[in-house]
Write a structure and sequence with these properties.
Blueprint lengths: L7 H7 L14 H4 L2 H4 L3 H9 L28 E3 L25 H12 L7 H26 L23 H18 L13 H21 L13 H16 L16 H4 L12 E5 L12 H5 L4 E3 L1 H4 L22 H5 L4 H4 L10 E3 L9 E2 L39 E5 L1 H14 L4 H6 L1 H6 L24 H13 L6 H7 L3 H4 L19 H4 L37 H6 L11
Length: 590
């Protein structure tokens, strides 16, 4: 059935409900499984493949939101928490062991490679089993992309190794060699996977694999371009071949979307951009390409409501809020429509509607809770939660509203069922626009097919490639106005969805945006007399009255101390370098 719930089969298998995989993945493959007993049918391969879906992010519990959850911008210039981010402050050390490189961290890859070494034993035709081969290749790319972002150069392992295998002591290959292998894997995955129209709703399909391939290609293309000449770059490469790949793949996906498209939003409607992110079921969405569904009693509920009803110790930054354009299409530094930021109402006045749909505003329209039990009044937002416990308050005064579901039933511990978006079609358009901007091929036609589709559906003026408004506060002053606007649109559309830190890393922009940053929030004076003074005392301010949460923390006296000569990659643990000297040298600066 087309409206089968996403992840029902997958989550039953991946989260421990007995019987789904016949105990297969809990055994040691080489000694406890008879290949002749298992690899017979396509269903055997499907059951094996179910295990891999658990790698996707989840609203697993309080604070466990995952790589691409709505909390994952925390630690960037988009969002902060009550405690400053240690990694951004260069406080990490070289671990003695673990650190994401221990044996257990490679088990997923071993399981995938074991499948790829054995699926040919199936007695079914390749046409019947190739979707699961495509899934294996997709998830191998997923695994390696995560490791690539963390460690850079990696060993390429494409066989299920045992403890005696010589490949365990291979050298690390240059990152572009790894990415070439991922492109090859995903080319095959795109070939093998069925399109949306015939694929099972709960499984990876061709279009999702195309989007993921384009995501990796854009990441590596911009990484190599902007890190060129540094210890993190790739000798002799400017990343253009990957940018061309990202553009070509998204061109193909946009031309034959297979049923995916942006959802049409009514700019004058009831906050429809906000409503895109707080549904319990995305089966009918054309934009959401893959998502995790929560069903209480099947795969449990979640506590996401804690992040949006009381802040959960997080808060949007002034840096993010200032990035939103005014409704005339001009930035706040040049638009006569800008009303300043003495109050939340003035901040969002005449601004891109996505701003007021991403953060709470005391306009009588932002409900914390409604549709509660009979006789229980609705709760309308009046002021951010600045007077709760550490995890029950907002860090900046700009409290996250994106993703909030005000239904009282969604605000019961472990009972949240709002779905978690993993892939959505808007990213396709943003990748296409950015890749072409970097290649110098972003024309007005391209802008109209990408960025302007995102702007028009929220009632914002179109980007005119030949007439970009001047911005006295251009975020990346060394780059063209066009690239700045493309990056702005990406930041706004994907705010709080977990892309920002990766973006700053691949743009080699951490020195510009993070080093020395003292994250700011809203003006505190607007809540004097509304929130008890004793509660406001925990929020120091800068000379202009903006909340500067870390002002009195000695370690943050000069802002974040991110080291651009070191912190773009994580270190390998010393134990692994001792066991395999071929992994040397250690990552730069460590």
């Amino acid at each position: 059935m087309r409206n089968r719930t996403l992840f029902i089969i997958i989550t039953i298998c991946a989260f421990g409900i007995a019987g789904c995989t016949k105990g297969f993945l809990d055994r040691t493959p080489e000694t406890n499984i008879s290949d002749g007993e298992f690899w017979r049918t396509g269903n055997d391969l499907k059951l094996y493949a179910n295990n891999w879906y658990s790698v996707f992010p989840s609203y697993g519990g309080f604070g466990n939101i995952g790589i691409y959850g709505l909390d994952a911008d925390n630690g960037s210039d988009n969002m902060i928490s009550m405690g400053y981010n240690n990694a951004m402050n260069s406080e990490n050390i070289v671990p003695a062991s673990g650190g994401g490189w221990a044996i257990g961290d490679w088990n997923t890859l071993r399981n995938i490679n074991y499948f790829l070494a054995n699926y040919t034993k199936s007695t079914e035709s390749f046409d019947n089993i190739k979707p699961y081969v495509g899934e294996a290749l997709f998830f191998r790319a997923w695994f390696y992309f995560d490791k690539l972002k963390r460690f850079g150069n990696l060993p390429w392992l494409n066989a299920p190794l045992d403890p005696q295998s010589g490949q365990l002591f291979d050298t690390r290959l240059a990152r572009n060699v790894i990415v070439d292998s991922l492109m090859n894997d995903l080319d095959k995955a795109v070939e093998y996977l069925p399109t949306k129209s015939v694929a099972q709703v709960s499984r990876i399909n061709k279009q999702i694999a195309q989007l993921f391939q384009a995501r990796i290609a854009l990441f590596e293309g911009t990484w190599e371009k902007y890190h060129a000449g540094s210890p993190f770059g790739v000798t002799g490469s400017d990343g253009s071949k990957y940018l061309q790949k990202a553009a070509a793949v998204t061109d193909a996906l946009m031309a034959a979307s297979g049923g995916y498209a942006l959802e049409t939003l009514n700019p004058a409607g009831n906050m429809e951009y906000w409503q895109l992110f707080n549904r319990s079921n995305y089966s009918a969405s054309t934009e959401v390409m893959f998502w995790r569904q929560y069903i209480v009693g099947v795969n449990g509920g979640h506590n996401w409501h804690r992040y949006t009803t009381s802040g959960a110790g997080r808060g949007l930054t002034k840096d993010l809020v200032d990035a939103y354009l005014c409704t005339d299409g001009n930035p706040i530094g040049s638009s006569p429509l800008y009303q300043g930021d003495n109050t939340l109402l003035s901040v969002v006045a005449n601004r891109d509607p996505r701003l007021a749909q991403t953060m709470y505003v005391n306009d009588g329209k932002h409900y914390i809770t409604n549709s509660g039990p009979p006789g229980v009044p609705d709760v309308i937002f009046q002021a951010p939660s600045l007077n709760g416990a550490s995890e029950g308050k907002c860090a900046t005064g700009y409290q996250v509203f994106k993703g909030h579901n005000p239904l009282a039933a969604q605000q019961i511990a472990e009972q949240g069922t709002t779905g978690q978006i993993i892939f959505r079609f808007a990213e396709v358009l943003l990748i296409n626009a950015e890749a072409k901007a970097e290649l110098g091929t972003l024309t007005q036609v391209v802008a109209d097919a990408t960025i302007n589709k995102l702007r028009s559906r929220v009632g914002m003026p179109a980007l005119k490639v030949a007439a970009i408004p001047a911005d006295p506060n251009r975020e990346f002053p060394a780059l063209s106005a066009l690239i700045n606007e493309v990056r702005r649109e990406r930041r706004i559309e994907l705010a709080c969805e977990g892309y920002r830190r990766d973006d700053l890393q691949r743009w080699a922009a951490m020195g510009l945006k993070i080093t020395g940053l003292k994250p700011k929030g809203a003006k505190k004076a607007q809540w004097v007399g509304i929130i008890p003074a004793g509660d406001l005392n925990g929020y120091p301010v800068d000379d202009n009255g903006y909340i500067e949460l870390y002002k009195n923390i000695p370690a943050m006296s000069t802002g974040y101390k991110f080291k651009v000569t070191r912190d773009y990659l994580q270190p390998l643990p010393t134990s692994e370098l001792t066991l395999n000297p071929k992994l040397s040298p250690q990552n730069p600066g460590w």
